[in-house]
Amino acid sequence: MKEQSVIFFDIDGTLLNHDKKLPQSTKESIFKLKELGHVVAIATGRAPFMFEDLRKELDINTYVSYNGQYVVLNGEVIHTNPLNISSLVKLTEEAVENNHPIVYMNHEDMKANVPEHDYINESIDTLKINSFPTYDPYYYKGRELYQSLLFCQEGEEKQYEQEFKDFDFIRWHPVSVDILPKGGSKAKGIEQIVQILGFPPERQFAFGDGLNDVEMLKTIENSVAMGNGEQIVKEVAKYVTKSVEDDGIYHGLQMVGLL
User: Fold this and answer.
1) What one-character DSSP code corresponds to residue 16?
2) Mean pLDDT, to the nearest integer, of 184-197?
3) pLDDT tens by residue, 102-161
4) Shortest CA distance to 183 belongs to which of 83, 60, 62?
5) Which end of the chain has fewer CB within 10 Å, C or N?
6) Can you spell out the DSSP letters for 108-165?
7) What are phi and psi of 39, to 5 degrees?
8) Closest among 48, 52, 56, 39 to 4, alpha carbons compared
9) Is the Cβ–Cβ distance between 9 and 207 less than 8 Å?
């Protein structure tokens, strides 16, 4: 058996293609890695409830979700980094004045502060998930939130970035921005896992394609950018594989010597 490694995979644009489908070659590659004794994990910006079906399909119980804010190792929560609620309330008040809806998210569910809005429908629909935010404007009360969504046109988030310094704002859709705790990242979430498992840098691998993967791919020694990834992602990665549609995971794993 080859020396054991840990491999982290982003979901959208990495494990799943544009249609949110899992290529057969990717599924077979994941199970081959597990058969060889490697640790396979997910590192995503999604909430845990947004990829539960995928975890079951691939039999993966270790993951970094919410871009590092909610981390699970072998089914056990090992790290959380919630949003500052008082700052979030102030941001919400400002967003209401600007007609910019907010969605509050924890590890179990997501709730919107408005009953209905086109921007929410438009962006969430692209995820092709079973969950959809229902109305609860006070969902932030009495619970930890790990991410929120701000719905606004490109550029309109700048006013919030200037005022709310304890948040990071990462655009993931033309009308939606992730609100995350300042400095949180997939890389920091991964660090929580590898510290416990004890893998040296040379036995750590990561695959990604989007802007929220940049820190992860800069940090992980054996980083692989998908062929369909953003240019900046390809520039920071050690390797660039084929597109997710073109068996990119399989080819990438061959490229780095894991398969």
Assistant:
1) B
2) 95
3) 999 999 999 999 999 999 999 999 888 888 999 999 999 999 999 999 999 999 999 999
4) 83
5) N
6) S-EEESSS--HHHHHHHHTT--S---EE-TTTTTTS---EEEE---TTTTHHHHHH-T
7) -95, 125
8) 39
9) yes
